[in-house]
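Quality-control log, excerpt.
Job 1 of 2 completed; input and output follow.
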Amino acid sequence: MDWTTLDMNDENSMTTLSEYADERFSTLLEAICAVQGETTMEMHDKTYYCDFTFSGMAISLDLSETALTYLPFTAFFDLTGLSSGGLENAKMPVNLVELTLPQTLTALLSETFLGVGFSDITIPKNVTVIMDSPFLYNSKLTMGFENGSTITKINGLGREWAGPTEIIIPPSVTTIADEAFFKSPLQTIIFEEGSQLESIGDNAFYGNILLEEIALPASLTSIGAEAFKNTELTAITFAGTKAQWNAITKGDDWFDKEDVSKVTCSDGEVSLAD
């Protein structure tokens, strides 16, 4: 399937994606849902992000021997319960503590991992497309990529109530899309050695009030408008020189002046006071 041409607003396309990828996965999902416990949700007073606590039998799911190229839309979540009283009535694999994805996987769809309880995940190297918001109702997630990943763009991984708290970006990524981590609970972002990142989109990290520092690679050439606005950033480092930093195209209000006063480059500091 050519994921780049998929229309998420097309009813036929969404029907296809909502179907189980094959009978084996359907059987696995039924087994997971049969050992449910309870899911509780607590909202932080300061951040308004939600923490989800999962109880019940701890489940490890290994899909490495399957030939799945994608997992279906809302693969681990039965939305039917939402119509009869809210999140607490929806069906979740409430204590899925570990998930191993198959090497054949090529895409992560929107809301695929909605409602899962694992705390870390490694994206296989053959995944080249990640649609918006594959992780929802998971507030304590470390996300990494397998060595050799060829993915070039990071789309919307966060929303106001969910998304990874830590992400390790592989060298192949050249673009962080507009609103990729908009108002998300992201606390740590690490660019692997050899990063080829070129652009950070508009509002990419807008409202990340748990993000306090970031180290940007020397390959960066553009930062979008309000990319780091309304964050808690107090430290920005840049692997390139002061001249390289000054050459970066920067959008309006890309940062909060009251919080960040300088950028530390490889050959000194650049003031942001002006």
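Job 2 of 2 completed; input and output follow.
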Amino acid sequence: GYLWRSDGTRAGTWRTALPSPGYSGIVTAVNDRVLVGAPQLASPNRQSLLAWDGSGSFTTLQTQNGFWTGPTVAVFDGRAWIADPNLDAFALVTDGTPGGTRVIPRTRYGSPLRVTTSLGVMGNSLWLFAGQQLFRVDPGVPDPVPVAALPFDPAGAQFGPMIGARRLVVLPDRRLRLFDPSSWTVADLGLSVSGGGPIAFGEG
């Protein structure tokens, strides 16, 4: 029922009560603020995205119907990009302040789209998937830029580490592949991962 903040010393360690007795969860952190999803006391079916800088009270950034159900989160260029099935939007982008928080409509790019996966930072850009469309976020640019359609559906894929300029991808058939963002192609490595469920990837 609490959030803790610490600088690594006993004197610099303290806690603050979460703003709601119901389920609350940390979404991410951006610009020295932690972002927390917490239900509203007056309306338990609505959940707020709150920011806390480690002192004082929480600041409300956004309120939505339903709970965060495992949001896709990426932090890049001082902004957190948040997508969730209960968020009726392409994505929510925030720098941790109310004035720096906005919702990008699902129809921003014509047809309704919602960010489903973050590929992470490659080069000096953040790469996001919405359906089978790949989007690039550049520093200082407010909205993602559509790049290309992919030859696979990223919704059921698991993404591993970068190997050179390519990223390891495991599709639902459990076969290992390498995705090359420069050509938008996927190379089959001829190997499969046995079992089911999430895969633990190593780095290096």
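Post-run check on job 2. The radius of gyration is 19 Å.
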